[in-house]
C-alpha cells in the first residue's frame, strides 16, 4: 500500500460537512450528491475484504426502490451474499471518518486488526440506471485502486446479477451476464418442458429501472416459453408511482397499468430488480396483491411436489421458510398449520433471513415486499447429483437450483420460479390466491427528529426504547380484533415504520394510526 498515494486519493473524496453515513439494512443510502466519499471508502473496504478472503468481492451502486435522486451502495461477499455482518462496523468507521488523515488511520487499524495481507484485491462493480451512477462508480473504482486493488467494471446490471457473478467467479464458473441468462433459463425450460398448462401473458411493471432491459434479454433466451409484456421500461421516473415497493406498500396499480384487465396476470419489480410482487385486478376493481409471503408458499408447494417423487435411503431433506415480522399473519399460520413446515422469524433485511435459511437443507426466505430466494445446502446438492443419474425428481431439484439465484433474492429468477410453479400445477392466480386470505394490514411511515431513539428486540416485534412506547402499543393492540402491531426504525430511509394488521381493514388502519401517534 502506497500511503502517500492513498492519502492523496482520500483527499479527493472529502466527506460533506455534517454528513453522518451509517450502514443500514442493506448498505448505505442517501441523497446522491452526498455519497461520493462514502462510495470511495466502500471501494477501499471491498478491496481490503477481497485481500482478507483471498477472493473477488463486489459493489453495486443502487438505491433500489428509493427515489431517483437518492443513491446508495450494496456490498457483496465472495460467496455472493451481502457483506459479512462482522465487517459492517468497519464500513461505518470508514464512511464516517472526518478527513483523509482519520481515514488512513482507520485503514491502518483495519490492516492490523484483521491481519490483511498485502496484495491486489479484485472488486467487481455494477450500477443501476440512476444518472448519478457514473460518478459514483468512478469513486468506487478510485477507492479500490487507492488500496492497490483491481476494479472490474461490469456496467449496468441488476443487483442480483452482480451477486450471482461474484459467486460464480469465485467458484471458477462462467460468470458473464449471458451465462446468467443461460443458467436460469435452462433450469426453467427443464421444469416446464412437459407442462400442458395454457401459457398466460405476464405484464411486468419494471419500475422504469434496470429490470426492463434485463428481463427483455432473459425472455429472448426463453424462445417463447415465457410471454412477457413490459411496462414502465424507462419512459417515466424511476420507482415513481410504480415498482414493487409502491404496489406492495400503497396497494395501488402502478403507473401505466391502472387500466389492466380483470384477472390479467401482472407483476412489479423494484428499481434494481431484486424484489418481485404479483398482482391482479379483482372483478370489483380492487387490487389483489400476491406478495413475498405468497411466493414463499408457492415455492414450498413446488418443492414439496418434487420431493414427494424423490426416493432416497437417507432422511428426507429438511425444508423451512424464513420470514420477518412484516409477514402477513395468515401466511405464517398457513405455513405452520397447512404446510406443516418449520418457520423462523428474523429481523428485517435479507442478511438476517439468508443466514437463518442456511440452517435447512432447502431454506426458503422471503420478505413480504418480495425480496427472497430458495437456498440449497451443499451436502444436499451433492446427494442430488448422485441421485440425478437415475431419478427425474433429483433432476428437477437440480434444475430448480440452477434457476433460483443462490446468492440473493432476484426478481428475474423469481418470475421464473412463480411461473414454473403455477404452470406445473396448472394454476392461475386465483388458485394461488385462494390458499389463504391475507389479514388486512397497513404500513405507515412516521418522520421523527431522531429515528435512532426507537430500538427493538425479539426480531423487531418489541420496542425497547423509548420507555413506555411498547406498553402504549400493547394497549392499542388489545383494542383491535386479531390485532398485531410493531414499530422499527427504517435502515434505508429517515423514518420510523409502523406495521399493523387486524381482522378488518378499518381496524388495521385505525391501529396503525394509533401506533403512529404513540411514536410521535
Ligand atoms: P427498511 O427501510 O430498513 O425497512 C427496506 C425493507 C427491507 C429491505 C430493505 C433493503 C420493508 C418494510 N423494509 O428496509 O425489507 O428490503 O429496504 O432494500 O419493506
Ligand atoms: Zn431492490
TrEMBL record:
Residues 47-97, 98-170 form the Alpha-D-phosphohexomutase alpha/beta/alpha domain. Binds 1 Mg(2+) ion per subunit. Keywords: Isomerase, Magnesium, Metal-binding, Phosphoprotein. Mg(2+) binds at residues 64, 270, 272, 274. It is an enzyme of class 5 (isomerase). Residues 176-277, 291-427 form the Phosphoacetylglucosamine mutase AMG1 domain. Substrate binds at residues 367-369, 488-492, 497. The keyword Coiled coil does not apply. The active site is at 64 (phosphoserine intermediate). Belongs to the phosphohexose mutase family. This is Phosphoacetylglucosamine mutase.
Amino acid at each position: 500500500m502506497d500511503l502517500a498515494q492513498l492519502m492523496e486519493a482520500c483527499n479527493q473524496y472529502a466527506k460533506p460537512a455534517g454528513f453522518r453515513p451509517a450502514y443500514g439494512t442493506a448498505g448505505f443510502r442517501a441523497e446522491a450528491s452526498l455519497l461520493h466519499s462514502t462510495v470511495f471508502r466502500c471501494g477501499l473496504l471491498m478491496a481490503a475484504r477481497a485481500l482478507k478472503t483471498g477472493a473477488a468481492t463486489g459493489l453495486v451502486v443502487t438505491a433500489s426502490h428509493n427515489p431517483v435522486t437518492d443513491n446508495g451502495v450494496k456490498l457483496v461477499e465472495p460467496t455472493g451474499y451481502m457483506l459479512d455482518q462482522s465487517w459492517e462496523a468497519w464500513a461505518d468507521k470508514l464512511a464516517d471518518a472526518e478527513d483523509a488523515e482519520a481515514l488512513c488511520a482507520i485503514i491502518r487499524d483495519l490492516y492490523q486488526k484483521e491481519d490483511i495481507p498485502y496484495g491486489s484485491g479484485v472488486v467487481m462493480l455494477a450500477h443501476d440506471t440512476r444518472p448519478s451512477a457514473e460518478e459514483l462508480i468512478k469513486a468506487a473504482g478510485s477507492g479500490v485502486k487507492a488500496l492497490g486493488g483491481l476494479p472490474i467494471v461490469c456496467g449496468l446490471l441488476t443487483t442480483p446479477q452482480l451477486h450471482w457473478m461474484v459467486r460464480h467467479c469465485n467458484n471458477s464458473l462462467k460468470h458473464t451476464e449471458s451465462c446468467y441468462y443461460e443458467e436460469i433459463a435452462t433450469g426453467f425450460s427443464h421444469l416446464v418442458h412437459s407442462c400442458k398448462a395454457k401459457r398466460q401473458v405476464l405484464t411486468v411493471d419494471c419500475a422504469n429501472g434496470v429490470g426492463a432491459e434485463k428481463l427483455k434479454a432473459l425472455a429472448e433466451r426463453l424462445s417463447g416459453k415465457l410471454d412477457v409484456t413490459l411496462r414502465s421500461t424507462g419512459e417515466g421516473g424511476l420507482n415513481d408511482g410504480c415498482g414493487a415497493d409502491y404496489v406492495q406498500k400503497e396497494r395501488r396499480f402502478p403507473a401505466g397499468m391502472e387500466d389492466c384487465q380483470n384477472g390479467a396476470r401482472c407483476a412489479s419489480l423494484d428499481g434494481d430488480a431484486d424484489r418481485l410482487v404479483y398482482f391482479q385486478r379483482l372483478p370489483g376493481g380492487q387490487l389483489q396483491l400476491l406478495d413475498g409471503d405468497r411466493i414463499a408458499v408457492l415455492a414450498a408447494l413446488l418443492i414439496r411436489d418434487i420431493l414427494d417423487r424423490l426416493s432416497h435411503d437417507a432422511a428426507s431433506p429438511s425444508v423451512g421458510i424464513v420470514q420477518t415480522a412484516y409477514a402477513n399473519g395468515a401466511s405464517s399460520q398457513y405455513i405452520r398449520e397447512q404446510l406443516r413446515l418449520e418457520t423462523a422469524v428474523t429481523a428485517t433485511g435479507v442478511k438476517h433471513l439468508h443466514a437463518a435459511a442456511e440452517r435447512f437443507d432447502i431454506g426458503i426466505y422471503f420478505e413480504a415486499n418480495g425480496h427472497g430466494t430458495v437456498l440449497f445446502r451443499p451436502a444436499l446438492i451433492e446427494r442430488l447429483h448422485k441421485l440425478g443419474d437415475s431419478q427425474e425428481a433429483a433432476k428437477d431439484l437440480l434444475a430448480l437450483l440452477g434457476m433460483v439465484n443462490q446468492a440473493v433474492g432476484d426478481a428475474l429468477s423469481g418470475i421464473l420460479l412463480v411461473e414454473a410453479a403455477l404452470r406445473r400445477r396448472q394454476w392461475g392466480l386465483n388458485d394461488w390466491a385462494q390458499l389463504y386470505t391475507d389479514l388486512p394490514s397497513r404500513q405507515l411511515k412516521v418522520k421523527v427528529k431522531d429515528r435512532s431513539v426507537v430500538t427493538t428486540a425479539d426480531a423487531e416485534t418489541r420496542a425497547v426504547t423509548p420507555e413506555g412506547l411498547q406498553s402504549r402499543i400493547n394497549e392499542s393492540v388489545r383494542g383491535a380484533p386479531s390485532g398485531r402491531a410493531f414499530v422499527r426504525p427504517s435502515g434505508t430511509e429517515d423514518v420510523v415504520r409502523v406495521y399493523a394488521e387486524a381482522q378488518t381493514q378499518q381496524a388495521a388502519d385505525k391501529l396503525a394510526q394509533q401506533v403512529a401517534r404513540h411514536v410521535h
